[in-house]
Specification:
Radius of gyration of chain A: 24 Å
Strand order of the largest sheet of chain A: 3-11-9-10-7-4-5-6
Structural class of chain A: alpha/beta
Oligomer: homodimer
Number of strands of chain A: 12
InterPro entries (chain A): Glyco_trans_6 (IPR005076), Nucleotide-diphossugar_trans (IPR029044)
Membrane topology (chain A): Single-pass type II membrane protein
Helix content of chain A: 25-40%
Order of helices and strands of chain A: HEEEHEHEEHEEEEHHEHEH
Organism (chain A): Mesocricetus auratus (Golden hamster)
Pfam families (chain A): Glyco_transf_6 (PF03414)
Subcellular location (chain A): Membrane
Chain lengths: 348, 344
């Protein structure tokens, strides 16, 4: 560059030009890498479209010995194990947990579990956390995110190695419906601010429950919902979707795959962020139009999962109420079950 | 994440009273800002996981899936590591087509037509035009040593053919095995920038029924039609420990066919690169795996579990195996050939 005879005010611009070029290169690299996919080692992140919307990695496993899968022998003959869009439906017998554990450990997977203990619901935390310690993602890194308005009442539960608990203090709402629905807003906000940097997957669960059997990495995928135990054998006309066209959660009679339960959903942080943000925005819209969906956040969840198909679906093993529904032979395990509660007393 | 650079870009302010010679620099600055914004958008979108990933499927009407009614009662449709095994009846192609079209998916199909094998290209391509990824963007990558002999086959909209001229090998085993090297090299150089998924197929075949987006995923293999009902001890894995393709008697999920595999470009790159390196290593150690590239493919897929597995509907030989009731469709089938004549 020839700087002679050039007015001083131009040198600042010339000085900036190289910086701008560097910036262009830096951003340009990002752009080009985006269109192309990253090479690298076998741990390279693969951006996979649609079927698996999350970060998909095919990792190298070491030698494992287990029974051979037989192509002519279905794992379950009594239930559907694959949705029409090829998402696995997780039932006992469909998966080998040793293979899955190996795959997820090789990626050093960290799972966040969000739970809301607002007002009197703090009383459920102890059993929830103690049973999670026994059954939830054992052997993997876990962060419990406990949202509460009573941080002092969060019990001290001993945690295993690689597991920690974070208390997030939030406001409460007077109506239990609002408490329930605002979970969507809070999860989306904290996903962006915090969860993105701390965990790979988020599991969003109700607190008035306990883990009674294994709940592990078999559930993890870009986006998952859980079959509501009251509707898995019903026709779609019986699903308690929101049926008023005015609501953002509206689903017509001739649409709908499953009825998902609002109490247990999750996925990659990004997908959970999208889901919770969309649900929150839908609720805000409905509120402005003077309507509240019949089953609150669950109605919006169902609308979202109709149009954004989950990449895994959990069977009702993952969401059960033994008091109401007993123990049918189709349930080989009851993994996450309702804790008896006095609805009126606890909701105030 | 997009917000910070936009704020910076918007904060540019032009000063008054500057000398004329500076105006060209100031004129360029908005262009540079624009370019930054343009590239920055790409960067922002890449670094974060695509916010738009789960594209919304619009209203669709179809029969309700029934939880208590398995789609197939006669076959396994899910591997123990939760990869779908694709059989007729397991999928609704309308939902899948919608999902993949929303992503503007482009599929590359690689096929090798070396020496006399060019004669198979016409039927392969004509039937692919009828059956393979119809409605989606397709690029055929035809590897050949006889580019002049590649037939002119009319292609549908959004579909094109690229001829890649490569060397041949004397031994048919080497022709077969070097496909791994060539695919890995072109994946890095070219396919990465042109397609989302790669499907790597043998040429002496034809498409006889639908082969579509239901097969697409990070990494897929296809069940060999001769072994899907066999015990693992009967699989013709490489059994000599000296070979890189060695698999012990007590290991193995399935026996995959070398003639039809694929996945995302990155995963196919890793697979083909690894197989090629294993083949080179074996060569240096004076050993050649019993079923060549197929042996190495099976070793790779044992340790890198595929995310989808295709049933033998996707790899059949009606002459040898007939049409059992378990096969609801025969999608990709062998074309009769005189092995000795064609391999020279």
């Amino acid at each position: 560059m020839d700087l002679r005879g050039r007015p001083k005010c131009c040198s600042l611009h010339l000085g900036i030009l190289p910086l701008i070029v560097v910036a262009l290169v830096f951003f340009g690299y990002g752009f080009v890498s985006h269109r192309s996919q990253e090479l690298g080692d076998s741990e390279a992140v693969t951006r996979v479209a649609v079927g698996e919307l999350d970060v998909q990695e095919v990792v190298a496993l070491s030698r494992m010995v287990y029974a051979q899968p037989k192509a002519l022998t279905p794992s379950r003959k009594d239930v559907l194990v694959l949705t029409p869009w090829l998402a696995p439906i997780i039932w006992e017998g469909t998966f080998n947990i040793d293979i899955l554990n190996e795959q997820f450990r090789l990626q050093n997977t960290t799972v966040g579990l969000t739970v809301f203990a607002i007002k009197k619901f703090v009383v459920f935390l102890k059993l929830f956390l103690e049973t999670a310690e026994q059954q939830f993602m054992v052997g993997h890194k876990v962060i419990y995110y406990v949202f509460t308005d009573h941080p002092a009442d969060v019990p001290q539960v001993p945690l295993g190695a690689g597991r920690k608990l974070v208390v997030l203090t939030v406001r409460n709402y007077t109506r239990w419906q609002d408490v329930s629905m605002h979970r969507m807003e809070m999860i989306s906000r904290f996903s962006e601010q915090r969860f993105l940097h701390e965990v790979d997957y988020l599991v969003c669960a109700d607190v008035d429950m306990k883990f009674s059997d294994h709940v592990g990495v078999e559930i993890l995928s870009a986006l998952f919902g859980t079959l509501h135990p009251g509707f898995y054998s019903r026709s779609r006309e019986a699903f308690t979707y929101e049926r008023r066209p005015k609501s953002q959660a509206y689903i017509p009679w001739d649409e709908g795959d499953f009825y998902y339960m609002g109490a247990f959903f999750g996925g990659s942080v990004w997908e959970v962020y999208h889901l919770t943000k969309a649900c929150h925005q839908a609720m805000v819209e409905d509120k402005a139009n003077g309507i509240e969906a019949v089953w609150h956040d669950e109605s919006y969840l169902n609308k979202y999962l109709l149009h954004h198909k989950p990449t895994k679906v959990l069977s009702p093993e993952y969401m059960w109420d033994q008091q109401l529904l007993g123990w049918p032979s189709i349930m080989k395990k009851l993994r996450y079950v309702a804790v008896p509660k006095n609805h009126q007393a606890i909701r105030n």
